[in-house]
Amino acid sequence: MAERLIKSNKLRIGDVSLSYHIKKAATQPEKTIIFLHGFPFNKNMWRQQLSALPDNCTGIALDIRGHGNSTSGHGFFSIDVFAKDLRAFVKHLNLDNIVICGLSMGGYIALRCYQLFPERIAGIVLCATQSKADDDAGKQKRFDSIQAVLSHGRRPFAIGFVEKVFAPASLQKESEAIALIKSSIRRNSINSICATLLALAARTDTSVVLPEIKCPALVIRGKEDRIVSLADMQYLAKEIPGSRFVEMDDCGHLPNLEAPEVFNSLLHDFLAAIPAASVVEA
Asked: 0.90 exceeded by the pTM?
């Protein structure tokens, strides 16, 4: 069998051009999983997951508008705008029974997507994320970050961010992952970073949707995550009927990069229980 290649495509939707990686399934029945990155990263953080997908699964890793190689469009960002971009993307490709895997900001988007088009979602993976909106202290931290980026640029922001998102052990040994994250942050424009911080501060609380999630759900947290608390992720798992909660040892906020083999194993087990999806026409 020929090696399945990860290809890069772009799709024009409304006011934006969305960039994405796609790795098509090699066999039938086919499943489709869409990976949504965290802030302020891009689709490249999911390459190890795309590479390891089972043959019966198509994988898509999307650049959220204003990140990576996707354009910013009108420039007014919100979690709602990001989710509606994905709804249009999924509709354009005629995808049903999709699995959405969202990390951090990607998880916020995934939950809003479930509110907007639950009929197309057959599974959901929520990693290093939560359903609650920022409290006032959280909002102020984001406003302070905006001021810091405007005053000092992306480099100091990238350095500080890396120190927060990786577990101490990862900071010592995961040099490639660290370089990837630093590069991802620096590739974003200052405008996009600041606009996304405002979007995160303004996001709505999606806790109300959790008991309504009828599809299989997997909740993953790195045990040493210093950004999203254990209590908030346990709340997710408790409120979503029948969900599975897993903590990954020696991982921080980016377990898919810090322990990819463990993460991929969890993902494969989860995907194996999801019914086949429709064929991707991308």
From this structure: yes
